[in-house]
Design a protein that fits this description.
The protein is an alpha+beta fold. The chain has 3 domains: about 1-80, no CATH class; about 85-275, no CATH class; about 280-320 and about 360-550. About 35% of the residues lie in helices and about 20% in strands. The chain has 14 helices and 22 strands. Strands 15-14-13-16-17-22 form a 6-stranded mixed beta sheet. The protein has a 5-stranded antiparallel beta sheet with strand order 2-3-1-4-5, covered by helices on one side. The longest helix has about 35 residues, at about 345-380. The chain starts with a strand and ends in a 40-residue tail after the last strand. This is Transposase. Keywords: DNA recombination, DNA-binding, Transposition. In the C-terminal section; belongs to the transposase 35 family.
């Protein structure tokens, strides 16, 4: 078995403790050999598990060996490591003591200070480079930024010791990521919308947050207190049992904590590694396959079929549409806010009222998505969804009310949630090709020549479509769910606007078992963005595809 650690130093430590073989890495330019972060610990990994976990629980496991790696360079197939990386978010109370409340705000400001200092340094370096081509550029990576900050912090921030060092590391890490995103977008290596050059952070525009990776981090035994470095214990407004019980039994280890502010409230996100059961979990109906069509009129339309019995069902889940439900109240609150004098007590009260409505919309939206995805992942063995480009859908919807309805539906929340929940429950997530016209092909209806029959309608958002072959009126959402359920057996007749038949794209499976790291693939492969309008050198510019309306 081969263990993949996060760093070469960790791999060397594991090799020394287990007597394993650290695999060779890429040779240096001068030809000298290096060592990789992979270690062959032998066939019996369980005898070395405790030693490996004492170094780090963030490792990957492969069924290969050093001999096979030397021959073909393959690590083997990845197997479950027994650990799942996840997180939980809790709302905490602001400290009652003014000094501690000021310390929390100081941490947020310290992160912005480090971010702005690093950005100013990078901009000055770019200006010097443009004025003098011979100027030696400075490093933009996190290591170079942290090294430069440690040399300059006594002058630019003589008060730096008041706060945790993690404040400055978090700000510089955010800057390094922002610069990397901008550079990749500019060179055409990053898909999606273009990313601009980072701007200086302000208290008004930049949300307060600090990420802690070292120091005293605890979820206390009273299940109502969370301890973060320097700031110490914060009282949680909700019970922390869902995390504390795993920590108390030794089944979980805290990796990091993020203290953030939103709507004037404090939140703590606890990132932790959770030991998964060796047997794994299975859904209640492992043989059933479900096709899920996300929409605006309904949150989701789910069509299922059991291959063993042939039983088919179609279920619609109501869309709460919280923004639409509170739109009138939001307008009244907005008018009330506009009549208040900024800075007055009435202005703060009116702003708080509008904020409560915003917060309620967010919570209702996420609650509906969580309930839907938990039921899908825990019930069905296979779940098929569409690879939706929600941004393109909003651009193509036309009227403002339609675009607002797409945003209110929050269809982008479902795919990432399903990606990690199917992993936990042992089910499989399948993402259908983006160009599969699920709502336009009449399910199990073909022309005499065998080509699929396309439905017709007056517009892109019609609830019912007409089959030109049979004259039947078909519900768009139910028809799309049936087509997704049978994907990819039901062949596509090509992208929207084309007539030549095409073979459906490759099916992507996410969450084929238990034990994978949550969030290791971003959205879990459930949302692959199109190429940006501005392609890189040597690449042809392609128009942004328009998503099919649900």
């Amino acid at each position: 078995m081969i263990v993949g650690m996060r760093t070469c130093g960790q791999a060397a430590k594991v090799a020394g403790l287990t007597g394993g073989v650290q695999l060779p890495g890429k040779p240096k330019p001068d030809g000298s050999q290096t060592l990789s972060r992979y270690v062959d610990v032998g066939a019996d990994f369980e005898s070395h598990r405790a030693v490996v976990e004492s170094v780090s629980v963030l490792f990957k496991l492969y069924d290969g060996d050093a001999a096979g790696y030397a021959v073909n360079g393959s690590l083997g197939a990845e197997v479950a490591s027994g650990w799942l990386v996840t997180a939980a978010k809790f709302e905490v109370e602001w400290p009652a003591e003014p000094e501690r409340a000021a310390l929390v705000r100081s941490h947020f400001g310290a992160r912005r200070k480090a971010f702005n200092w690093g950005l100013g340094r990078v901009k000055a370096d770019l200006d010097a480079k443009s004025a003098d081509p011979e100027h030696e550029s400075l490093g933009w990576d996190l290591g170079a930024l942290r090294k430069a900050w440690n040399l300059a912090k006594h002058e630019v921030a003589p008060w730096w010791a008041t706060n945790s060092k993690e404040c400055y590391s978090a700000g510089l890490a955010d800057l390094a990521q922002a610069l990397s995103n901008w550079s990749a977008s500019k060179n055409g290596r990053r898909q999606g919308r273009r990313v601009g050059f980072p701007r200086f952070a302000t208290a008004r525009r930049d949300p307060g947050r600090v990420r802690f990776t070292t120091g005293t981090m605890r979820v206390e035994d009273d299940r109502h207190s969370i301890t973060v470095p320097v700031i110490s214990a914060l009282r949680s407004k909700e019970n922390t049992r869902r995390v504390q019980r795993h920590l108390a039994s030794g089944r979980a280890r805290i990796l990091n904590m993020t203290l953030s502010q939103r709507w004037g409230r404090l939140f703590v996100s606890v990132g932790y590694a959770l030991r998964t059961p060796s047997a794994g979990r299975t859904p209640t109906q492992p043989t059933v396959r479900a096709g899920v069509d996300l929409g605006v009129r309904t949150l989701a339309t789910v069509a299922t079929i059991d291959p063993a019995t042939g039983v088919e069902t179609v279920v619609e889940y109501k869309n709460p549409a919280p923004l639409k439900a509170t739109l009138a109240a939001r307008r009244r609150a907005g008018r009330e806010l506009s009549r208040r004098i900024p800075g007055s007590h009435g202005h703060r009260a009116a702003k708080a009222k509008l904020t409560r409505l915003d917060r309620r919309c967010v919570h209702l939206r996420r609650e509906a998505a969580h309930q839907l995805t938990t039921q899908l992942a825990g019930t069905y063995g296979q779940v098929v969804i569409e690879d939706l480009d929600v941004a393109a859908m909003k651009r193509s919807m036309g009227r403002r009310a339609f675009r607002r309805s797409v945003s209110d539906a929050a269809m982008g929340l479902v795919a990432p949630m399903l990606a990690y929940k199917t992993t936990r429950h042992g089910s499989t997530l399948i993402v259908a090709d983006r160009w599969f016209p699920s709502s336009q092909l009449h399910h199990r209806c073909t022309h005499p020549n065998g080509t699929p029959c396309r439905l017709v309608g007056k517009g892109r958002i019609d609830k019912h479509l007409i089959c030109p072959q049979t004259g039947e009126m078909v519900d768009r959402d139910r028809n799309a769910a049936l087509n997704l359920r049978d994907w990819p057996d039901y062949a596509s007749c090509g992208p929207v606007g084309t007539t030549a038949p095409s073979v459906p794209g490759p099916t992507e499976s996410v969450g084929t078992g238990h034990g994978a790291d949550t969030g290791s693939t971003g959205a879990g492969g459930a949302s692959v963005r199109p190429r940006p309008r501005g392609a890189g050198r040597g690449e042809a510019k392609t128009p942004t595809p328009q998503g099919d309306a649900a």
